[in-house]
Amino acid sequence: MNQKYLISVMLLAISFLSLNAQNTKTPPETKYPSKKGNLLLSKDNVKMNYVKNTETRFDTIRVYNAWDKEMSLNFGLTKNYLECAAKPASLKPGEEGLIIVKYNAGLKGDWGYVYENFNIVTNDTLEPSKSIFVMVYIEEDFSALSTAQRESAPKIVFEKEKLDFPKTKAGEKITYSFKFKNEGKSDLIIRKTKASCGCTATEPEKSVLKPGESSAINIVFDTKNMTGHQHKTVYVYNNDPRYSTVALHIEGEIE
Known about the structure:
The chain is mainly beta. 13% of the residues lie in helices and 51% in strands. The chain is built from 4 helices and 19 strands. A 5-stranded antiparallel β-sheet has the order 1-2-4-8-6. A 5-stranded mixed β-sheet has the order 3-10-9-5-7, with no helix packed on it. It has a 5-stranded mixed β-sheet with strand order 12-19-18-14-16, with no helix packed on it. The radius of gyration is 24 Å and the shape is flat.
């Protein structure tokens, strides 16, 4: 771990110990509502919203050993963008500690909502491996752009951003192309497209558009096993600093 990371871990640990000293009489179940085996946790997930792709973010999970034996805390991580540390590395019966999570969005190299998990590996005979859910929303950082760079940036413009489809029978597939153009002064890059559910497939015709070029996001909405009013969304992540996340909507009735 680098020096900055160690300093951050120390500061978090100091803050935790100070808080712990003020709350020694609080029942463990009140402070630690989540339980995994003999380990009580303040939460069983890590959520980080609007993390820049140039940013490293930290979060903490407070833990308590409700076991009558000492519990070791380890992590079977091999991801360079996600690091965890336990302070202390093992908990005596009735002892409290911290799980410190470090997430480097730049190393992850993704956009929008990203979902994954990591495991706290322990010697707990009741539940040795404890899964922690991780949700991060990553967005591009345009803060370093000068005024001139912003004026010469790409500009994504869609002909329309919503498809209102007519009443459709369940089982039919709805296809549509959301056409768009780069009306900016430099290359437009489509970073990623992602649908709000697996029933909607997306595929950009090209991922790099020069100034003046046009393309389309093709969607296929399979209405199998669906009824009533439906509203799906396709997100288009791109390098237009004005509109880096475009939400395309597909809406209508299925009978």
